[in-house]
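hey team, just a heads up i'm posting the complex here instead of the shared drive bc the drive is being weird again. everything in one block, sequence lines first with there labels, then the predicted structure for the whole assembly after. its two chains so it's a bit long, scroll down
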Amino acid sequence: MGWLIDELGRGQYNETEALCTRLLRIERPQPELLFTRAEAKRLRNKANDFNTALEDLNAAVELTKEPAETYRSMGLIRRSLGQKTEAIDALEIYVQRAPQAADAELIKSYIGELKV
Amino acid sequence: MSFTQATSLNTLSHQPKTSRLAWFKTCLVLGFALVLQACTTIDKVEKGNSNFGDRFQLTFEEGWNKPRTMYGPAEQLTREGFGVDRVLIYAGIKDQTQISPNVPGSKLEPLVYKSRNSLEENVSMFQALLTRDGSQLTMEKISPAEFGAKRAVRFEFQLVRKSDNVRMKGVGYVAVDKAELFALVYVAPRLMFYPRDIDKFEVVAKSAKIN
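-- predicted structure starts here --
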């Protein structure tokens, strides 16, 4: 998972999407790759990116053993789309599963805002 | 006269005229480049208030060096020189502004500030900016904060600089107001410089005013 996080950190989202798509084609579907592709789309945020990112995230959850960050991506997309309840549910799962995450405090503040 | 000098003069005297001309032209260009570098102006930010852009003000309790070179749209400050420490100042950056500096021949996609980005997306943008040269960044903490009396995010990170493997540490603040980006990012070597100057940076960050 570490190298995929580094790959996302480069901010070259078209390349990351292409890389994950290629790897998903040649290897069996992996939740980490689906999450990374979804996260690249979320951060790129072009037309239809949120919808296809959600498809990847749901597919990652169906495969099980999805990384906790899957729920952060899901929650942040739902939050951007104004889907408060779904956003809260997903972000709460993320914070429960990754209480020590670097951004846990920020995500908790988002949950608090969404609940108001 | 040293052996090298003698050899180079000897080589020169045996070169055809056109080749000698090219050699002198190269020397002229190099000399001009050196003169230009020597002329790079460094201003001083003195104690007191300083304005950046139309809407951003910082208060300094000590002097900082302020080279006139920009890093993309960011103004820069340093105490020891860019090889050591650096503060990037983003003052009222407008929607769709390119954040990453133009590097000739680079195939990397430019980084662009989008006003619709959420605060954590802006943090990802700065992460991408700081790792653009191949440096490796680990985000240590991203937390809600106040910056310039606006809702903001504070982030802490460690960075292994690609060029020399120096371990750096940094802190950033990001806020968006009226669709404009305001940010301060400080980075310095983890040993000695960061612990020595982080409090000074925090004082500057806390003084931020967004008008």
